[in-house]
Amino acid sequence: MSETESAAAPPPSPTTAAAMERKPRRLRGHKKGAVTCCVASSARPGVVASAGEDGCICWFDLRTQDVLFTIEAANKAISSICFKPGNEDFVYASAGNEIFSFDVRMGPQSKPLQTYNYNRDEINQIAVSSKGFLAAADDSGDVKIVNTIQKCLHKRLREAHTSICSSVQFIPWRPWTAITGGLDSKLSAWDFSRGRTLFSIDYGSPELQNGSSSGSAGQCFNPAFVHSIAVPEEGILGGPYKVCAVARGDGAVDVVDLEYELAPAKSKGPRAATSTMSSKRTELGDGSSNQSQVKRIHLDYTMGGHTAAVSCVSFSAFGEKGKFLVSGGNDASVKIWDWSRGFSSETNSNAELVLDIDVKKKVNWLCTTTTDSDNLIVCDTSKVVKVYNFP
Question: Is the pLDDT of residue 216 over 90?
């Protein structure tokens, strides 16, 4: 899926230029092709699993130099991997239209414990909930919800998107809710027990596009496809934020207040149906100062953001968990944002770009972890996993 490259951004500031010179550690283990995705263990700090076009899952401990072991998981490219919440001895991987589960404790001898083959088209992302449900988003626009305990198909979100469904995540604090994004430029939340939509945001709609104060200059040829969604753990930054981040094809990153969007329409005020977005932040409500709250943040190139499609986004595991938002894009850069400053209704601050890293190649995926130092793990179009220290 290729997109037109955008116009060049303004020259970087001295701080940004210095950040561009960072040299990463390189983790080698994949045989060939690009590294497509990675996931950091929360139960084992410093342990990272990556998967790639060689069909292998490589396990790394950031305290050591070499790969710990490799699982030959599939005979085709792996598109997505994730741990089982609450028990990271088990990992799931998707390849083609199939999903495999593995017991990590078996090491390189691990064979699939279970194979799920409910999707009719190539799977782009998988996610597992704490209740044992497995979601798989595919090229047909469908999302399949599998009950891994009873080992059966629980629900099909038929034609969840009118184009490729690129991303799916469960919402941890709402156990029957999933959120999806697609190349129809829509972000949708679902009650997957009933198979019905709870809300949908169309980033391709004239209301949202015309409402952007950035005017889409330099980005007008890139549709606002939803490439990736990140939903943080419950209770980040002390608990007040229940949000998701959206990586968009037009180079923007959005942070959306999920609880506001999921609230009944009558509680949102008269402007809810036609809300607009700015390059800094959006205020919704009835216009009174005591009820107006920031409900979405829009981070784009006018703030030093991406100049091409954003491929992935993640909330930070280091520092104060969730304080930073990390995005990677087709412009071969990784951006680290202090997003919560712009989301708080108690301050007049704006979200801020705090670090810009030139990674030289298009970014496929990224994640963060913390050991003795804070680490940013980047998967690009090479077969090497790159590790950057932050700050």
Answer: no
Taking only the tens place, the pLDDT of each residue in 337-371 is: 999 887 766 656 788 999 999 999 999 999 999 77
For residue 379, give both structure tokens. Answer: 């998967």
| Local structure of residue 6 (DSSP, 8 states) | P
Element housing 40 (H / E): strand 35-40
CA angle 55, 60, 66 (to 5 degrees): 100
Higher pLDDT, 8 or 260: 260
**Predicted model pTM:** 0.87
Cα separation, 287 vs 346, in Å, equals: 16
| Confidence (pLDDT) at 3 | 40
Using the structure block, give the residue that is written with the tokens 């495999």. 100
C-alpha dihedral over 298, 182, 271, 171, to 10 degrees? -80
Q: What is the rounded distance in angstroms from the CA atom of residue 221 to the CA atom of residue 72?
A: 40
CA distance 169 to 179: 5
Question: What strands, in cross-sheet order, belong to the sheet with 324-329?
Answer: 310-315, 324-329, 333-338, 352-358
The residue count of the chain comes to 391
User: Would you call 253 helix, strand, or coil by DSSP?
Assistant: strand
